[in-house]
Design a protein that fits this description.
Keywords: Iron, Iron-sulfur, Metal-binding. The chain is built from two helices and four strands. Helix content is 14%, strand content 23%.
């Protein structure tokens, strides 16, 4: 069974720099109409945490999600 991940964006901290969007290999993130990062395809997240690591404002958090079978 594939692992699932939760991508959380703390929007007040996001400056909309786009670094996380540029690094995401699965294109999980996009800028929304408020020019803030948003997880639009979280089901595609592979948990590489590149977005979490590159965010200069610590606005992105990736955690493994518990799946209830």
């Amino acid at each position: 069974m594939a692992k699932k991940f939760q991508v959380t964006i703390h929007e007040p901290w996001c400056k909309g720099c786009g670094l996380c969007i540029a690094l995401c290999p699965k294109k999980v993130l996009e800028l929304n109409d408020r020019v803030k990062c948003e997880a639009v395809r979280v089901e595609d997240c592979i948990g590489c945490r590149q977005c979490d690591n590159i965010c200069p404002d610590l606005a992105v958090t990736v955690k493994e999600r518990e799946e209830n079978a």
